[in-house]
Specification:
It is built from 14 helices and two strands. It has helices at 3-8, 24-58, 75-82, 84-116, 122-135, 139-149, 154-161, 176-186, 189-200, 204-212, 217-245, 249-254, 268-278, 282-306, and strands spanning 61-62, 70-71.
């Protein structure tokens, strides 16, 4: 029973009414709460839980949006094992995640440490640096990236000043994925703000005591900042990995939905999209979606398991 209900349950003589009894006002409050929760519950069931369960069923079927689903058992799983393009997309996605996430967190932490030292107009710089995080997943920024790293893009125009003729960075299989990694690292604003908030919570007397003992700034960073900031690093790491596995817009726009030269930017999300809406193989695409869910879940579980060795909490 809520605190309000507990107060209403008190008698005038100070005694408590039976816990199981409810007043008319309590029942009215419960109905009001249920009414306000109803839109969220409808959305949860109809928009989230329902499609999730439907995709689980469709992953065991052959379905093309035009005919009724045909149950095929484990055929989609066997097909995934034999699908070389799916294997390529997994390799690209893992490379993208393993490289871009640590680089983004390192850039975010570096900028946060610099901003934490104090400067005039801190709010302005923080807003400017956070802005790419709001735009990084948009179509406009992906189009801008094509204008920068294309064969006739701004980067090659700049290199031409020094007599260097650069290739089409997004058209070469050796550099196409690198341009997407740079785009991901550039959107370091969100983890930077979280790092900055965490740095502001570290007591300054720790640094003062370390300075008195002769600790260098690097030693203070290793022995004070990183251990106390490790829960924030862990939080940003988990969110960064989940977000990297879900990346789609950048690869789709930059490669025109093709996956880039020799599938060098074929993320698993893009491959899923091609199968679901390009080939209308919705059943197979649902199976790929569940594979992605299992991979993200396994990566998250692995991080939680490993966190006990390097994340320190102030108990």
């Amino acid at each position: 029973m809520s605190a309000l209900g507990e107060l209403r349950a008190l008698r005038a003589d100070g005694k408590r009414t039976p816990r199981g009894s409810r007043t008319k006002s309590d029942r009215s409050d419960n109905r009001a709460a249920a009414l306000f929760l109803a839109p969220w519950l409808v959305g949860m069931v109809g928009i989230t839980l329902g499609p999730i369960l439907a995709s689980l069923y469709l992953s065991f079927t052959n379905y093309n949006l035009l005919q009724n689903p045909e149950f095929t058992g484990l055929a989609n799983i066997q097909r995934m094992v034999e699908d070389s393009n799916l294997g390529s997309s997994l390799v690209v996605t893992f490379l993208y995640t393993v490289i871009s996430v640590p680089l983004q967190l390192a850039a975010a932490l570096l900028v946060a440490v610099l901003l934490d030292r104090g400067m005039r107009g801190l709010s302005f710089y923080r807003s400017v640096l956070y802005l790419p995080s709001l735009l990084g997943g948009s179509v406009a920024i992906a189009v801008l990236w094509r204008l920068v790293f294309g064969g006739d893009g701004l980067l090659n125009a700049f290199l031409a000043i020094f007599g260097v003729h650069g290739p089409s960075w997004i058209g070469s299989p050796d550099t196409a994925l690198g341009t997407l990694i740079i785009l991901h690292v550039w959107t370091f604003g969100a983890p930077m703000v979280i790092f900055l908030a965490g740095l502001r919570q570290i007591p300054r007397q720790y640094y003062e005591a370390a300075s008195t003992d002769g600790a260098t700034p690097w030693r203070q960073f290793r022995s004070i900042t990183m251990p106390l900031l490790s829960p924030i690093v862990f939080f940003n790491l988990v969110l960064g990995i989940i977000g990297a596995f879900q990346s789609f817009t950048q690869a789709y726009v930059i490669s025109n939905g093709s996956g880039g030269p020799t599938n060098s930017t074929l993320f698993i999300t893009l491959y899923l999209y091609q199968k679901a809406f390009g080939s209308l193989q919705v059943g197979y695409a649902s199976a790929i979606a569940w594979l992605l869910l299992l991979i993200v879940g396994a990566a998250t579980a692995l991080n939680f398991w490993a966190s006990k060795y390097w994340v320190f909490y102030d108990d």
